[in-house]
Structures
1.
Amino acid sequence: MLFLKHSSLDAIGIAAVAAIALAACSGGSANDELPLIRATLTLKTVSQGGVCESVRIRLTPKELKGVSNKYANNRMMVTEVKMAGPTDENGAPMCNGTGESLPMATGVWEFSAPLASGTTTCQRDIEADGDLSIVMIDGVEGCGGPKSAQPDATMPAEDGVPAEGEAPAAPADTAAPATG
């Protein structure tokens, strides 16, 4: 009957250990206070056979940077956007949808969606105070808003003048035309 004699002490000891363990788990970390960043995803695509089905958008981190909330995703994920319609837009049956991503870590992310004309892909720098609106339109490159986070190196700066710190473009091949 030793068990019955000390059962109240054992219960108190177990309760104390459980309280200490719970206190250790409930302590937050510094990044708990950081915002959860979610992108707004807007799609517009041509209806296939008069039907508007949900579109799955793949979100892939390309370059994570800074510190994010501990609940932010830092790996590839897929978000489904429910589409509505079709609606008649300039004689074309269009499907439209808007959704929200899961929480994302800060950094450059690639967004990819299979639309009627093919897969649309773009990159965007995701920051708490940045542009979080991703707009993908069937037949239009990019994802709306500012240019891609990774600018196209083949595009010249405004007025063909290289930006500060950039080398001028190589001259075009000026070989003589073939005669004959």
2.
Amino acid sequence: MAVRENLNLNIIEQLMIEHAALRLHFRFAKETNSNAIYELEEFVRTCHARIEDELVFPKLKESLSKPIPEKVRNDLSRLEADHRLIDKIGDQIKVQTIQGDVEILRKRILLYMNTVESHNYGEESLIFQHWNVSHAEERETKSKAWEIIRLFGLGRYFAITGFSEELVKIMQ
């Protein structure tokens, strides 16, 4: 079986792989009461959601037929609001960690994981199928996404997503 020279994943496929990695991390965290939530929350906030907010959602809006169908516009608006909610729950996790109320902290962490998983499912089922950009726009979006990933830290990104340097080389 020959290996493809270039996987050429688009940004939506990359985000969906990140969603799968988050589901696995969350399952592990629920089963083991892992403290990995802090690293995952930072990844979601400063890397994954940032790519969606700054690059993917605006391009989706731009690429959809004019006028944007009301349902899709509403779905996008709700998913953008979800990011703010997810950030607020992340902030609450930090506050509860400092305050030391273990029971409230556990509930906030569960709420966080469930909210992120529900949100990611919404993206996958409601809007990602509308991604339709030119090859040049895709290249530009991926390039900007990798700038955000590098700011987050390649090692940290690889550890969370399961991507490797070799995989990234053949993806691009």
3.
Amino acid sequence: MIELNEKAGIYAEENVLSVLKEAFAKVYADGYRDGYKDCQDHVSVNLRISNTEYVDLGLPSGTLWSSSYERIGEERLYLPYDKAKEMNIPSENQWLELRKECRWSIDSDKLYCIGPNGNSIHFEETGYISVKKNKELTAWSFFWIKNEEENGNECYSVKMSWNTAYDIKSYSTFRGYNLPIRLVRNY
């Protein structure tokens, strides 16, 4: 006669895989449904795959903007356009939406961009790095935007300045300059 513990062990060996498969399938399905519901309800979720933190500004397109410039350690990352375009930098349309849909506010050393939902990001003076690898310290904040049509050595970037009033422009920039990087992401 088989002892109860031995019989229980045989039963467990025969059934453990099917029980685990069912449990993992349920956990996966529940997580998928919860994530889908959060997306429908526009619940703000940390979407970090890297160290980049994104902010939902409540833009009609659903575009999330990085809370700050990209960094390597404590240093701000500066790249020429051809390297930057491989990243998820904003398109011209995403930039125009940000500019149009948000309120802009000045606070001495920062320019705040306040979205329709009240969340905000800010821009500080960044300067740029010239072709000679000299950092040009200016009272301007810069970042690249993706060009639909590239025109030789010129690509588009955003240039912002503020003192008592702000001046925000997108303009043609030499693609060899190294500008800081701002990223975007969609829901």
4.
Amino acid sequence: MHHTWLRDKLDYSYHMKNLCALILLAVVVFGITGCKSTSGSREFIPGKGWIQND
């Protein structure tokens, strides 16, 4: 008699690994794009706030 539970367990594990890898990739991509500054270099000066120092 053939047991299918081992195959089902391996299929579940395979899909979960792919899902976790996809989520990790999305977090890394969003983290990298969120850290980029679009306005160049700035400096905080008390009383004046953030000013450009290009």
